[in-house]
Amino acid sequence: MSFLKSFPPPGSADGLRQQQSDTEAVLNGKGLGTGTLYIAESRLSWLDGSGLGFSLEYPTISLHAVSRDLNAYPREHLYVMVNAQFEEESKESVADEEEDDSDDDVEPIAEFRFVPNDKSALEAMFTAMCECQALHPDPEDEDSDDYDGEEYDVEAHEQGQGDIPTFYTYEEGLSHLTAEGQATLERLEGMLSQSVSSQYNMAGVRTEDSIRDYEGQLP
Question: Rounded distance, CA 82 to CA 140, Å?
Fold first, then answer.
């Protein structure tokens, strides 16, 4: 396939975590051959015996997992889903893409399966993938944690710059209430006073007022 390139294998300078030989690479159900899988901190790479292969950048990898379901695939493997297209483009595929350009919400997805000859290495491969991908967090997730609200710049206000927040005392606050707001406040205060008075009659609770009322009722 045209996307296979020749490049030197990742080494210690790339933060190589796992090197798995005799690993078959399968792209969207099509076998690419048997070669060596390199799980490095910088990228995920696979090279066949002739030195041709491909690399996957971690930000493009949306999912990776160990698949042991023999109904989905006849051999246990490391499954990797990538938000990119790697198929060899033909004239027909190019024409199809031009027709689909109007649908911008559909992202290309490629499914890789890395099938090691030694299936006992799958756990180590998966662990190395997790550790390396954790070094490349999704920037969109980081941006979502940013605070978008307006901050109060103390230094700017001390220098007489910017708008000074307005604070009111209780009496000043009442004067700014509308007639409807004042009526609502009075109703809430009435409900609060009733709640306070009723607490003295709570079963099992003895207060000074309840004791005095009880003593007043004695003969």
Answer: 17
